[in-house]
Amino acid sequence: MRHSPLVQQLIDAFTCLPGVGPKSAQRMAYYLLERHREGGEHLAAALHEAMEGVGQCSRCRNFAEAPLCPVCMDTERNPALVCVVASPADVLAFEQAGGYNGRYFVLAGHLSPIDGMGPEEVGLPLLQQQLGEGHIEEIILATSSTVEGEVTAHYIQEMCQQHEVLVSRLAQGVPVGGELEFVSGATLAQALSERRSVKP
After folding, report:
1. Cβ atoms 64, 54 nearer than 8 A
2. With helix as H, strand as E and coil as C, how does the chain read?
3. According to the model, what pLDDT value does residue 190 have?
4. Which of 146, 157, 133 has its CA nearest to residue 84?
5. In contact, 153 and 143? CB cutoff 8 Å
6. How is domain 5-53 classified at the CATH fold level?
7. Buried-exposed string 93-129: b where 16+ CB fall within 10 A, e elsewhere
8. CA 96 to CA 27: how far, in whole Å?
9. 106-161: per-residue pLDDT in tens?
10. What is the Cα–Cα distance from 27 to 2, expressed in whole angstroms?
């Protein structure tokens, strides 16, 4: 049996989500159509509004609905301390852990030529510009310990050396190959407070 065109379109739309295959997408589509059409309409409206209204912060590249995100607008944050992370989920992990009062820079990925992710795609020209302005005193590298994360960290470290900016790395406690968004708040806070300087 084939689905009608609109049902198939809905199923196909759900498969764009990570970890959602055809069967899971079909269950979601059927659930909304059979039992929760009001929820489906709310989901559609929320998706439309988010896709139209959520952009990137012009300073840190985090999710924002204005030119600057709430962290960058906060005058109580230390602008000389910048933590470089791979995704907005990592920013959330740090904020929930507490204890960090600097700003962030969100790469939205890692350097990976195979995947078409070069310096432009991860925002490094913007970071280079900010380093050149002379306001940043320390960069904390919080990229993952995957091959791509390490390559990205090395690239940023070389950028910082050009501007004589101190570079540090998260300390022990963060598992090798682990993603920051899945690390406990206490572990993340300890890794941040015990960060180590990176030697040129």
Report:
1. yes
2. CCCCHHHHHHHHHHCCCCCCCHHHHHHHHHHHHHHCHHHHHHHHHHHHHHHHHCEECCCCCCEECCCCCHHHHCCCCEEEEEEEECCHHHHHHHHHHCCCCEEEEECCCCCEHHHCECCCCCCHHHHHHHHHCCCCCEEEECCCCCHHHHHHHHHHHHHHHHCCCEEEECCCCCCCCCCHHHCCHHHHHHHHHCCEECCC
3. 57
4. 157
5. yes
6. Helicase, Ruva Protein; domain 3 (1.10.8)
7. bbeebeebebbbbbbbbbbbeeeebeeeebbbebbee
8. 33
9. 999 898 888 888 999 999 999 999 999 989 999 999 988 788 888 999 999 999 99
10. 15
Quickly count: other Cβ atoms within 10 Å of residue 197's Cβ: 10
Residue written as token pair 């390559």: 151
Instruction: Give the pTM.
Output: 0.77
Section 163-186 average pLDDT:
66
Q: Which CATH code for domain 56-197?
A: 3.40.1360.10
Q: How far is CA 120 from the centre of its chain?
A: 16
Contact present, 175 and 146 (Cβ < 8 Å): no
Domain ranges of the chain: 5-53, 56-197
State which amino acid sits at residue 183: V
